[in-house]
Design goal:
Helix content: 10-25%
Order of helices and strands: HHHEEEEEEEE
Strand order of the largest sheet: 1-2-3-4-5-6-7-8
Low-confidence stretches: 1-17, 36-41
Shape: globular
Length: 174
Amino acid sequence: MSFVRSLNHISDKAIFTMNYSAAFFLLISFFLFVSPSHGQQKDSPMPNNVIFAQGGTVFVNGHLAAGLERRIWSQPNDAFHFYGGLGYGRYRAALFFSGAGPRAHISGFTGAGAHHFEISLATYYLPSTDTTPDEGGFGPDLSIGYRYMRPEGGFVFKGFVALTGVGIGLGLGF
């Protein structure tokens, strides 16, 4: 049974969670693809785009994902940055859900030079299948960690602790 459907058995508030996750997914999509003025600011030395792959696991939880991030906003003094991303991944969380599907996230990070503290909020959608017709739905993920990303771009490294496990990410900023 999916995470969202499991919550439905506990509380009717799970419907709100599913609708909130869907709205979050659409909002990130808007900022990344419909509103180019937000995604491609040129007034910051930070890379506008990051291609990434990441994965993490703890016991029976885990994920493996890949995607693209775009810079949404940077503070004028470059002390804080927001990136939004879309991707695709495979997820597993104990007895709640397992499957592959699209994901959207927004990350905020702060720091000096190439070293940054990062917090990220994500949602993913796992579609139902022929063998699990009632298990599709949205799920949340939250991560806190470290990001190495030089202002001029190039190699990107992430280390994080998330709801879906402890993991690393590798990427390329440009």
